[in-house]
Amino acid sequence: MIYFHLFLAFVRIGFLAFGGGIAVLPLIQKEIVDTYQWLTTTQFLDLVTLSELTPGPIAINSATFVGYKIGGVFGAAIATGSFCLPSIGFILFISKFLSAFEGNDKVQKIMKGLRPSVIALMSLAGYSIAQNGIIDWFAVGLSAVSFILVWKNIIDPIFMLILAGLAGMFYYR
Amino acid sequence: MDVLIKRKKGILWILFVSFFRIGAFTWGGGYAMVPLIQRELVQKKELMNDDDFINILSIAQSFPGAIAVNTAGLVGNRLAGFPGLLVAILGSVIPSFIIMILAATLLFHYGDLVLVQRFFRGATPAIVALIATGIFSIAKRAFKQRFDLILSGVLFVLVLVFDFHPFWIILIGALTGLVRKS
């Protein structure tokens, strides 16, 4: 039964995962933390950090993590596979109508229209993570410094994450 | 015939190895993987030319899913049909899968250690910063139109205050995009 729910949750996430990368996080939070309550908010934060620190797409890393926690290695395979299913469906569909899809005006319009949606959903993820993760002035400063360093391309995001983690190890003694 | 089968087996192996390598050595997913995929498939293996690749890339972003997985599937499907699709996607996913299971196992064992908790506590503000840079880089393109700015705000309120499911947020964006003139 748990496998069936993992399947449902991650097919849904895969079906709505527009924008790539961290844009998938709010969807995962909605399904995994709010709807199914498989992770607490703190565990979700750990999941996000771990997904960023390990190579590969964040959505795949998250699916594997959640599936593994809920249903072991098999659960991880179910969650990851389910996330990919909508992609596979779309690819097969598109390859049948490729000429209609390529450079299609309507598709372009929809993709542009989705930007505000992606911005709103990512803002939600940022907001709720900030609410739980930015708990003192040290965290505020760390966040601001990280933003500037990454936005100005001074530091690679993953390296920044490790530095911030190390800073946390020293500060929160 | 024999040659064709041999070639096909060869291409499946090449697809698997190429996307395995891409999956194992790119962090962050999404657009971070694009240059690596291009180097691997266009420049090193010469499986397709630049125009083909750019075409596939723009299609890969026009439906949901991880961009790396979508790109892998489209490339695999074009070069070797459905088996190619499966092999390429498996290749791109398996490294993440294995590494994440190892990492999660470590976290479940050592997550209670104070040092580990402090590390995650420090990393979280940086995650917020990373998300903010992600939002900013999309907003930079989107907010050239006032309508997008307002719609983003409205959708954010809908999802935060009124607890709308992301599905409706996606649907509203897609529909307004379809209806709008420019």
Written description of the protein model:
The complex is a heterodimer of chains A (173) and B (182). Chain A is an all-alpha fold and 173 residues long. Chain A folds into 2 domains: 2-133, no CATH class; 135-173. Chain A has 8 helices and no strands. The radius of gyration of chain A is 18 Å and the shape is globular. In chain B, 81% of the residues lie in helices and 0% in strands. In chain B, helix 1 (2-25) crosses helix 4 and helix 3 (50-60) packs across helix 4. Chain B is flat, with a radius of gyration of 21 Å. Chain B starts with a helix and ends with a helix. Chains A and B meet through helix 1, helix 2, helix 3, helix 4 and helix 6 of A and helix 1, helix 4, helix 5, helix 6 and helix 7 of B.
Show the helix and strand layout:
The complex is a heterodimer of chains A (173) and B (182).
Chain A: H1 2-16, H2 25-35, H3 41-53, H4 58-96, H5 98-101, H6 105-133, H7 137-151, H8 157-171
Chain B: H1 2-25, H2 34-44, H3 50-60, H4 67-110, H5 114-142, H6 146-160, H7 166-179
Task: List the defining traits of the structure above.
heterodimer, A: 173 residues, mainly alpha, 8 helices, B: 182 residues
Portion in strands of chain A? under 5%
The helix/strand order of chain A is HHHHHHHH
Q: Please outline the major beta sheet of chain A.
A: none
Query: Count of helices of chain B?
Result: 7
Bin the strand percentage of chain B: under 5%
Treating each run of at least 4 consecutive H or I residues as one helix, how many helices of chain A?
A: 8
Largest interface: A-B, 103 and 90 residues
Tell me the span between the first and last alpha carbons of chain A. Answer: 43 Å
Shape of chain B: flat
State Rg of chain A: 18 Å
Shape of chain A: globular
Backbone CA Rg of chain B: 21 Å
The run of helices and strands of chain B is: HHHHHHH
Oligomerization state: heterodimer
Helix content of chain A: over 70%
Count of the separate structural domains of chain A = 2
- What is the residue-mean pLDDT of chain B, rounded to a whole number? 83
Strand element count of chain B: 0
First-residue to last-residue Cα separation of chain B: 51 Å
